[in-house]
Structure formats: C-alpha cells, structure tokens
Design a protein that fits this description.
4-stranded antiparallel sheet, Aspartate Aminotransferase, domain 2, globular, binds pyridoxal-5'-phosphate, Ornithine Decarboxylase, Chain A, domain 4, 7-stranded mixed sheet, alpha+beta, about 500 residues
Length: about 500
C-alpha cells in the first residue's frame, strides 16, 4: 500500500545518522566533524550530518532504484503526474531538459517573449530555433500577462512545423492563461505542450487556485518547489503526463544537466515539501489566501496603491489569477518600485519578492504570519506619508514615466546557438546598431530578454537599454553587466 505520509529519503538519512556510521567517504567535512568552520557553526552540525552522498542505503538520482525512486513516485501521485523527476539544479535545469528533449538543431519551438532565461539556455544548448510571440500586456502595470489561445493558434498556423510549444503558467505576477484551450490547440498538431509552472507548484491544493498545468492537459510541467512550497532553494520537480514526451531522451538529458554529486539536503527538502503538502496542502494554501485577501483589502484603502486583481479577468491572456501573489502598482505615488523596495528594506526591514519600475511584487505563503502582514501594511502606509513629506523623492519620476517597459521582438538573423558559438566582439552599446547580438541581455527586473543571441540591435533596443542603464536596473545574461559594452557577432 502506498503511504503518502512516508518520506523515504528523510527516513534513509535518519537511519544513516542513527547508525553512527564511520565516514571514510565524501564529503570531506565527514558530517561536520572538522572544527573551525563558520558555516558549520552558523548552519548547525545537523545539516552537515545529513549531507551524505550516494552510499548504500541512499540512491542514485540518475538511476533511481531505492529511496529517490520511491520519493519521486510519491511526488508523481501528489502532483498528478505519470512520472516525476527531482531536480537539484533548479527549475532551470528541468526547462532546459524539456527543450533539449523536444528539439533537435533547427527545430522550431514556440515560446512567449517573457520566458525565463533558462529556457533560452535550453534553446542554445539544443540548437532549436525560437519562434517568439508577444504575451498579452497591461500598460497600466507595465507587465506581461498570459498567452491567449488565439496567439497560439495563429502562431501554429504560420509555423505548423513547430516541434513543441512552451508556455509560462502562471506568470511571475500570478496570471494564468486558458491552458485547457491552449492544450487542445497544441495537441491538434500532435506536438507537446511544455509548461513553465515554476510559480505554481501549489495549484493542485485549493479550488480557488487555477488548475494545475497537467490537469489542464499539458504534457510536462516544471515546478519551482522552492519558490512557493518549502523545499530548499534549487530543489524543483519535473512532471510528465502522457506519451508525447520522449522519456528516454529526457532522462538522458537530465543526466547531462544534473550533478552526479547529488545533495541529499536538497532531495530531503523535496521529500519533506511533498509530504507536507499531502498532509496540509489545502490548509496551507487557505492560510496564504486569507493573508493575501486581508492585505489586498487593506492596501486598496491606502491612496496611491493599485492592486492587480480580478478586474483583469476576461482580458486576453487572463483566464485566472493566483491571488497568493500581490502585484502592487505604485506609479500614482510618482516613485519607482526600485526606490520603494529600498525604502522598505532600509526603514522597515521588509524585503519584497521583486520590484520593477512600476511595481512591487509580494509572494504570500503559509509561512507569512498576520504579524508579517501588519508590518508590511504599516511600512507601506508610512512610505506614503514619507513621500508626501519629502516631495523631492518624486523628482526623477518624469524620466520613469515615459518608458516602454516591453520592447518589441527584433529580427532573428541566426539561431541563438549559432550566435552563441560565433566569433564575438565587444562594442559600446551605441555602436552596436545593426549588429547581431552574441548574448542575451535581460533587465532584472522584469526578467524579460530585451535581446537574444542571434537578434539584431535596433535603435529602439539601444534606446531602451540606455534608459534602463540610467535608471540603475540590473542586467543579467550579458558579459559586461554594466552594459558599457555588448557582445556582437563579427560578420
Ligand atoms: C518563470 C520562471 N521559470 C523558471 C525559473 C528558474 O527557476 P530556478 O531558479 O529554480 O532555476 C524562474 C526563476 O526565477 C522563473 O521565474
């Protein structure tokens, strides 16, 4: 009989610890037995004690036949998958594996522009050719919304030879597309629907949340278990349903991408997070929803904050909303989200999940108490008062106001892989006009690639990047993150 309460990996670790096994094996800290290590003092020796490796009694992530296999099977049951794979290199590695197992060099994959950069890495690694389409967009908040079924239909009509479609569900801000309709459209072409569900691992546990990707008909989904559930950072899951995914190829790809020195701390945290949700999932999501609802209602009473919510339902690309994420638009206060993020951190020791020019984003889970919510409310109220008393902080606002937060898609002159492998040369941003980019440049936030390897620099791209640079936005993915120079392909 299957017992969902079981935590096989944690049980194996406990047994190894209880046996007081003498360790003539890796890792070198021997269960935290070497003195003068600040990490051991800070993290606690128990964490080091549990940091074992693939010794008998444990298992092999690359060929699971024992406790890892058992824990993965339990996770498949919990998350409604035919098969689940534990990921120790983040959701990134699951997304890369999906792209690499669906596409050979030159194969087309349909992807929205607001993909996480790990999907672009998968495209580079596989040699696939991305067919980008724009997600729907909200100009009030300056954020991408979901994908409409019509966008997928149109894209597939133009590219019926695509080998896969990959969708972000939900978006960072919690917006869920009509995945059920999208799945039906995609399956008419007999290709897989791959879903980046990094921000939705809690979906299956409460009726007020959107359907899980697999319930909606997806062939594969990647969960950021560490993002919304309680595994350690970097511990994620990949779920498969049906026969459209070549599992042999997928497993071979995971072997390429994942470390052979599997961290049992990460695996144990996945085992624990899964069992916790089996036993208390609905209750925890209910708590998160209640905290979020309280915050949403209170924040609406404060002049200046705009709370993204159900009024967006029914818009193209907005089928449902995960209310545990709270996106606060703050343009009415005439300050940037980046300024607000810093102010809250410095004055109230509150750290938001993400800030961009127009918004603050909060993630609420059962780990947030009522006292957290009260502190946040107090901080946000005081911030409004502070701005009123110090109008000089709004002086730079006019610069921020005119920004197009989402540039259009530039021409793809060569595949991202060809560009990545091409001969790069470094130029100043201004000189890059007309050249093909050798790298991806992503502004963080909002984490959307502005230019990808293989795309040509246009005046609009250069202008956008220059403005972001002036605003002090962080750049990621590129070699020179100060953006004094960019890498282009020598033609
Ligand atoms: C939508 C989305 N997908 C994938 C990832 C990658 O996840 P990980 O950091 O677990 O590799 C992220 C990370 O923030 C993300 O936001």
């Amino acid at each position: 009989m299957i017992t969902l309460q079981k935590t096989p990996i944690i049980a194996a670790l406990k047994k190894y610890a209880d046996d007081r096994t003498i360790r003539f094996h890796m890792p070198g800290h021997k269960g935290g037995q070497i003195p003068h290590n600040e990490a051991i003092s800070f993290l606690g020796s128990q964490a080091f004690f549990a940091d074992v490796t693939n010794v008998p009694g444990m298992d092999d992530l690359h060929q699971p036949h024992g406790v890892i296999g058992e824990a993965q099977n339990l996770a498949a049951l919990t998350f409604g998958a035919d098969q689940t794979y534990f990921l120790i290199n983040g959701s990134s590695c699951g997304l890369q594996a999906l792209v690499m197992s669906a596409c050979n060099p030159g194969d087309k994959i349909l992807v929205p522009r607001n993909i996480h950069r790990s999907i672009l890495s998968g495209i580079i690694l596989s040699g696939a050719v991305p067919v980008f389409f724009l997600p729907e967009y909200d100009s009030d908040y300056g954020i991408p919304l979901g994908t409409s079924p019509e966008a997928i239909e149109n894209c597939l009509q133009t590219h019926p030879d695509a080998r896969a479609v990959l969708i972000v569900y939900p978006t960072y801000q919690g917006i869920a597309s009509d995945l059920e309709t999208i799945a039906k459209i995609v399956h008419q072409y007999d290709i897989p629907l791959l879903v980046d569900e990094a921000h939705g691992p809690h979906f299956g546990f409460h009726e007020d949340l959107p359907k899980t990707a697999l319930e909606a008909g997806a062939d594969a989904s990647v969960h950021g278990t560490h993002k919304m559930l309680s595994s350690f950072t970097q511990a994620s899951m990949l779920h498969i349903k049906g026969n459209r995914i070549n599992r042999q190829r997928l497993e071979a790809t995971l072997k390429i991408l994942q470390s052979t020195s599997t961290s049992y701390l990460l695996l144990a945290s996945l085992d624990g997070a899964r069992a916790q949700m089996d036993n208390h999932g609905r209750e925890f999501v209910q708590q998160a929803l209640e905290t979020s609802l309280f915050l949403r209602n209170e924040l609406k009473k404060i002049n200046g904050y705009q709370i993204l919510g159900e009024e967006l339902l029914g818009r193209a690309g907005v089928f449902n909303i995960d209310q545990t994420k709270i996106n606060i638009g703050i343009t009415n206060l005439q300050i940037s989200g980046l300024w607000a993020e810093q102010w809250l951190r410095q004055n109230h020791h509150i750290q938001v999940e993400m800030a961009d020019i127009f918004n603050l984003l909060l993630l609420v889970t059962a780990g947030n108490s009522q006292s957290d919510a009260n502190s946040l409310l107090q901080g946000l109220k005081e911030m409004c008062n502070y701005i009123e008393l110090h109008p000089e902080v709004t002086e730079s606002y006019s610069t921020i106001k005119g920004i197009n937060p989402f540039p259009y898609i530039p021409e793809l002159a060569m595949s991202p892989r060809e560009a990545f492998l091409g001969s790069p040369s470094s130029l100043s941003l201004g000189q890059a006009l007309g050249h093909i980019s050798a790298e991806v440049i992503t502004c963080y936030p909002p984490g959307i690639p502005v230019i990808c390897p293989g795309e040509r620099f246009t005046p609009e791209i250069i202008q956008y990047l220059s403005v972001m640079k002036e605003l002090g936005i962080h750049f990621q993915g590129c070699y020179d993150t100060s953006l004094e120079t960019v890498l282009i392909i020598k033609e």
